[in-house]
Prior knowledge:
By secondary structure, the chain is α/β, with parallel strands linked by helices. The chain has a single domain, classed as Rossmann fold, CATH 3.40.50. The chain has 5 helices and 6 strands, in the order βαβαβαβαββα. It has helices at 31-47, 65-76, 95-113, 128-133, 142-162; strands at residues 22-27, 55-60, 81-89, 118-125, 135-137, 140-141. It has a 4-stranded parallel sheet with strand order 2-1-3-4, with helices on both faces. Strands 5-6 form a two-stranded antiparallel sheet. Helix 1 (31-47) crosses helix 5 and helix 2 runs parallel beside helix 3 (95-113). The longest helix has 21 residues, at 142-162. It starts with 21 loop residues before the first strand and ends in a 10-residue tail after the last helix.
Amino acid sequence: MATVNLSDYKPLHITNAEDFSIGIVFSEWNDFVTYNLRDAALEILEKEGVKPENIKLFPVPGAFELTYASMQLCKERKYDAVIAIGCIIRGETPHFDFVSAGVAQGIKDCNVLTDTPTIFCVLTDDNKEQSIARSGGDLGNKGVEAAVTALSMIDFKRKLSDKKGNIGFGHS
């Protein structure tokens, strides 16, 4: 069980973040969690200078639909990053395992099959209390971490483009 708040926000100071375009896909299922995650991500993106008009919100019914919506946004090639926000809480049947695995695989596919960083901000918790703790409670807010990750990956991708592929060992 996690006992440490990993969401302490440290400003990134990324230059030109106002030009970043970000799509946020969020599940309306378990909205008492997902809306908190979404709002925290929005707050950090705007603090870092992303213009509100460059952030587009896309609600979907449940966590499983995050994969389709995220892939469609990636295929549009309109967004510098996509953040997928959801919350899956374990129940009494294997449904939790199927949905969690499918969503993780789908978001992974967005990352390896497209050129758009897709950030996994899907809580997979055993109970509501764990979800609340990770969406603004004692353990921070994973929406903060998702926003920071999105900005970092956009910055990484732009640095790759600036170097025209010369990144890594042996190149300067």
